[in-house]
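Q: I'm building a small set of examples for a reading group on sequence design. Run inverse folding on the following structure and report the sequence directly after it, with nothing in between.
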């Protein structure tokens, strides 16, 4: 027989277990507790029209970001309000958009470019920001360091360093050795940046003439005029949100001019460029969503280290190569992560 004392001991332990379980269910972990309230997240982009951004079936809608938040327990119509903003290529709109984000009392902001928040984030340092960033995010003062950003801004480095841009130019020349004159199809900011200077230095060392086909916003026709006048052998497209958002326009331009083109994003190659080399956007947007979720659960953005891409892809469009009558060397094809037929 079991003694009365032992029964009482078991009963006491069981009651203690039930009390602990009840407390756990009542309060949950910080993550589950935070999911009970409705959170407001602002998604801020640079060039897409609001109509394109809000079109759930369109290419500009941030599906990887939204899908990852849903996996983490944050769903629109339940416990998430997602406000979509775009400056639509007009930089003067940024202060008004940022003021609206502040008025809405957003719990977190995701920005597709650090340029959108520079000069404004300090006005409302209480709002946590996750941003796609260039390698210079520490130099601009938005973060104290990559490992410990401090303050209200964190995110991920999209461009890693200016050396990636130079490597992209080298890949273009390996694929098409005859190229001697290249149009740099990019915004003035990218042309004057450290990465732009690095590309210019690399071009000079390789005996290549680099001309700037400049544009702002979505004004690709302005760059087209320069390309028509300068008659380059190829087009180089730098990184950045302008190159990504204008991918369709850029693809149409280079195909119309029958010019081989290398860009930063695989989406550029899918839109008509001959090649792309750079970080995978589809990998980075879920990372941004992970950080937004951590912030909603109570983590300070300054405690979240700024992350680097782990996946770089060389993508070659054989469809564009055939249209241009270009034969890609076998050595380059073997290095490609993906070939578009």
């Amino acid at each position: 027989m079991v003694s009365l004392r032992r029964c009482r001991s078991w009963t006491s332990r069981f009651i203690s277990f039930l009390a602990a379980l009840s407390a756990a269910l009542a309060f949950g972990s910080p993550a589950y507790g935070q999911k009970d309230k409705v959170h407001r997240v602002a998604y801020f982009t640079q060039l897409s029209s609001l109509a394109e951004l809000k079109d759930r079936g369109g290419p500009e809608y941030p599906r990887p970001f939204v899908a990852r938040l849903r996996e983490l327990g944050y769903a629109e119509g339940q416990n998430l309000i997602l406000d979509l903003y775009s400056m639509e290529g007009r930089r003067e709109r940024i202060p008004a958009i940022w003021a609206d984000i502040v008025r809405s009392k957003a719990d977190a902001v995701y920005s597709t470019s650090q340029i959108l928040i520079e000069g404004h984030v300090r006005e409302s340092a209480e709002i946590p920001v996750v941003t796609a960033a260039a390698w210079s995010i520490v130099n601009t003062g938005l973060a104290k360091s990559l490992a410990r950003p401090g303050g209200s801004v964190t995110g991920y480095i999209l461009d890693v360093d200016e050396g990636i841009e130079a490597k992209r130019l080298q890949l273009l020349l390996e694929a098409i050795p005859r190229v001697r004159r290249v149009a740099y199809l990019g915004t003035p900011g990218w042309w004057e940046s450290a990465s732009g200077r690095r590309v210019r230095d690399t071009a000079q060392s390789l005996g290549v003439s680099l001309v700037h086909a400049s544009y702002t916003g979505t004004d690709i026709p302005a760059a087209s005029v320069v390309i028509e006048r300068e008659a380059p052998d190829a087009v180089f497209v730098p990184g950045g949100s302008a190159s990504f958002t204008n991918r369709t326009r850029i693809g149409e331009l280079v195909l119309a001019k029958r010019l081989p083109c290398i860009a930063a994003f695989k989406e550029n190659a899918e839109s008509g460029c001959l090649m792309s080399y750079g970080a995978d956007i589809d990998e980075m947007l879920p990372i941004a969503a992970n950080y937004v979720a951590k912030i909603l659960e109570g983590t300070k953005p300054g405690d979240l280290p700024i992350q680097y891409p782990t996946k770089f892809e060389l993508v070659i469009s054989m469809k564009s190569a055939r249209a241009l009558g270009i034969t890609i060397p076998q050595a380059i094809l073997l290095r490609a992560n993906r070939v578009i037929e």
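The domain at 32-159+281-303 is CATH 3.40.50.2300 (Rossmann fold).
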